[in-house]
Design goal:
The chain is of the alpha+beta class and about 400 residues long. It has helices at about 20-25, 30-35, 40-60, 65-80, 85-105, 160-170, 200-220, 240-250, 265-290, 315-325, 340, 350-355, 385-390, and strands at about 110-120, 125-135, 140-145, 180-185, 195-200. Strands 1-2-3-4-5 form a five-stranded mixed beta sheet. The structure holds iron/sulfur cluster (SF4). It comes from Paenibacillus montaniterrae.
Length: about 400
Amino acid sequence: MSQVAHADRDHALLSASGAHRWLHCTPSARLEASLPDTTSEAAKKGTLAHEIAELKLRKHFVEPMGPQKFAAAMRKFKKHELYEPEMDTHTDMYLENIQRIVHSFSSQPYITIERKVDLTTYVPESFGTSDCIIIGGKQLHVIDYKNGQGVPVPAEQNPQMMLYALGALRHYSLLYEIETVHLSIVQPKVWDEPSEWSLPVNDLLAWGESIKPIAQAAYKGEGEYVIGEHCGFCRARNTCRARVEQLLSVEEIAPLKPPLIGWDEVGEVLQRADGIVKWYNSLKEAALAHTLAGGEVEGWKAVEGRGLRQFADLDAAFAHLKANGVDEALLYERKPITAAATEKLFENKKQYKELLEDTGHVIKLPGAPTLVPVGDKRPPITNRVSPEDAFSQPANS
Ligand code: SF4
């Protein structure tokens, strides 16, 4: 089996996965290249989940393998220290989505997995690896699996997916006539359904032309530093001067005339403060790591945090307590697991839902009100009583 070692993949200076960043902030790619690449635990988990996803796709579409061989490969993944049972269900969702797309064709489409695509027509020295490409009936499907839960990644106008699609067109447009491009991102920790977006092939090609000068500037490290939500995964996010200066500048807020800011201004203040809090926490973490490694941060030092008490030897401590008159019943507590934790008792979410939610044994209570940006997909709520509600109350209630 020729499975790709995801962690060992090469990365282009202008990678497709970083396009969201270098298209907004053209000097960022060269700046990032000058900084060490550290891989977070979340990224390592993502790599593992991708390897499981690839195995499942290969089994179904490329290299049929017997149940024993598949089970042996899965056992190996399950022994990995970062393995989580939900990786199995989530990669099943990814597989099911690809099966749905494959079955939507009247005849077997072409399917390729972990395809390295050449992006140099649009972006200097760039390439990327697409999780799955399906072609048939003048349709090109590009499908990506995302394991993260912190940041939802929609397919619409997604430059990484659009670049993969352009790379696929370069490889396959001589062999297949393609009219429509479908992009789909499966992110099971965020959405139950994949995020999908389609566009005519000519629109995609026009977009590819439009980014050429931006990619040239990014390749040369030219242009202005532009801060925004794309800074979140930038290697320079903690110490980028442009970001620090803009986050901490108050000129735009300072000239506000009245002594109290109005609700019309609060939105922007909250948005900026949110960026400052995230950046502050991330910078503090980086400064701690720097200090622990022997570096100096003027005015700060690393110390031991508050320690936790724990038994040196649990059995010996409990025996000692009992010998000194403490009733054994007082030493243990029996607590029910939470409703959310019961989901992990089942192989898949469907079983859990049928047994507990559909039978009314698990009910959903409304969460505490929380303030989120207006783009959040949840509907707004209010405590205000509407005239309709007020007049629909029974008279004697
Ligand atoms: S932190 Fe933001 S502004 Fe600074 S280089 Fe990175 S993407 Fe550009």
